Amino acid sequence: MADSSMCNAKNKLEGKVAIITGGASGIGETTARLFADHGARMIVIADIQEELGRQVATSIGVGKCHYVHCDVTNECQVKALVDSTVQNYGQLDIMFSNAGILSSSDQTVLDLDFSAFDRLFAINVRGMAACVKHAARVMVEGGVRGSIVCTASVAGSCGGKRRTDYHMSKHAVIGLVRSASVQLGVHGIRVNCVSPHGLATPLTCHAYGMPADEVEKLFEPQTPLEGVVLRAGHVADAVLFLACRDSEFVTGHDLVVDGGFLIR
């Protein structure tokens, strides 16, 4: 029989300490607010958007949310982020490794720009791995049966006519999650990822050079599920599920939030 605490709709993360990278906007910001609504004791927002990150943390609540500047391409900064969280708040229960970027160009195989490729992989793959590595280390050391969630993408489960480097990077994230889940299961640490279809986050709007409503019109016809537009809140709900005890027997899983895009 399920523990009664698993059924408490508004306190799924009561007393938990979480880090959210890329938490100053988009999916990260929305997830931070949802975590706060569900009783998280402290949410540490890590981002390179200093002013925005501080504004989000303040709006959530000084005693509830804290901003830390962190460039995930710098492993020393990732380690410092994780270590300071444990030192200040006693433990780390949840790592939502969400920081990532889109391709800066169309990037087909025939004309790969490896300088752009390397930058994207430094953030989307190396940065993701650093977050998983250092979060897992402190969870193991602290005996915490934690949850690590990574942001992948439907691009990690299919090919594409462009943005080749982005597709490659998200395939790598799913590989990281599957390997880490096998290795960390012995410590009771769960590792999963969430894979959204395209949605109108500030990052996506900037990459496509379109306002949010136009980005939504671009992606909406690509999914068979009619009458619903994918929003950051849908992805945040999936992350909450993977972070809390509702999914305590789920690990190594890629939770697709795509309105049926991959099964068309």
UniProtKB/TrEMBL annotation:
Family under the similarity heading: Belongs to the short-chain dehydrogenases/reductases (SDR) family.
Catalytic activity: 21-O-acetyl-isomeliandiol + A = (21S)-21-acetoxyl-apo-melianone + AH2
Organism of this sequence: Citrus clementina (Clementine)
SUPFAM superfamilies named among the record's database cross-references: NAD(P)-binding Rossmann-fold domains
Classification via InterPro entries: NAD(P)-bd_dom_sf (IPR036291), SDR_fam (IPR002347)
Name used for this protein in its record: (21S)-21-acetoxyl-apo-melianone synthase SDR
A Pfam entry, by short name: adh_short_C2
